[in-house]
Amino acid sequence: METLESAAADPYYNRYPVFDRQMALALLNKLDTGCIFYFQQYLKKYKGDINIKDCWQKMGLAYYINNNPAKANYCLEQARALGNTHTDADKLAYRFAENKVWPNKALLQARLLIEGGYYERALTILRSISPAQLSQPEDKLEYLFRYGRACQETGDNNKALDYYQKAINTGKDRHEQFAARAALQMGQIYEQGGMKIPALARYKECLHMPDHDFQNSIDQQAKAGLNRLGGND
Predict the structure, then answer these.
(1) How far apart are CA 204 and CA 199, in angstroms?
(2) Which residues, including other chains, have CB under 8 Å from residue 54's CB and lie 6 or more apart?
(3) How many CA atoms lie within 13 A of 217 on its CB side?
């Protein structure tokens, strides 16, 4: 945030719409509605067609978490109609817009905060959620993973491992990313703690998960872990 704010003082700042997008993403990850202005600035200044769908979709998320469903749905319609799907971000935005299903609001807020590094705020939200009230299996699975991730990032590795294991048990036969990512994060915790054998086991478990979202990215990280530990010998 400070780097982007400093860049805004540069006389050439307006020549680079990418700065507006980065500021928008940084503010969105704080749940700050100021992100909407910067997404709009990017869309106004940028003359290309990359990240158009992504910006509209994320602007929709900002309206959604701030209880403005009419504008949120309008943004999704724009995400469907404008831009292209050349990038992974735009592909995901288009798929999200096509599905027309808004996520659990509290889980979305926790996800954004974790992505922005606001782990204690994320934990506060996650603690307010009653898992029994999550009616969708994918929401229960995401809750377990996000809770584990927030615990890991705040230094409570034992609790993180417990939640990651629950996520694996719950989602190992599903196609969401969370069980595979939980195994990956467990591998990283064990590796950082110098526990080679359980780390290798978790990286291998990650690679043997069924087809899931973000598989290439997650598999590459698991393979990198195996390589670091000599698990591919």
Answers:
(1) 9
(2) 79, 83, 87, 89, 90, 92, 93
(3) 7
Model confidence at 15, pLDDT cuts 50, 70, 90, reads low
Q: pTM of the entire structure?
A: 0.88
**Pair of tokens at residue 107:** 């889980």
What would the 3-class secondary structure string for the chain be?
A: CHHHHHHCCCCCHHHCHHHHHHHHHHHHCCCCCCHHHHHHHHHHHCCCCCCHHHHHHHHHHHHHHCCCHHHHHHHHHHHHHCCCCCCHHHHHHHHHHHHCCCCCHHHHHHHHHHHHCCHHHHHHHHHCCCHHHCCCHHHHHHHHHHHHHHHHHCCCHHHHHHHHHHHHHHHCCCCCCHHHHHHHHHHHHHHHCCCHHHHHHHHHHHHCCCCCCCHHHHHHHHHHHHHHCCCCC
Model pLDDT for residues 123-182, shown as the tens digit of each residue: 999 999 999 989 999 999 999 999 999 999 999 999 999 999 999 999 999 999 999 999
Please name the residue that has the structure tokens 């595979």: 180
Return the residue matching tokens 């935005």: 93
CA atoms of 180 and 213, how far apart (whole Å): 9
Residue 86 CB coordination number (10 Å): 12
Q: Which domains does the chain have, with CATH numbers?
A: 2-99 (1.25.40.10), 105-228 (1.25.40.10)
Q: Are 96 and 80 in contact (CB under 8 A)?
A: no
Q: Name 119's Cβ contacts closer than 8 Å, sequence gap at least 6.
A: 113, 150, 153, 154
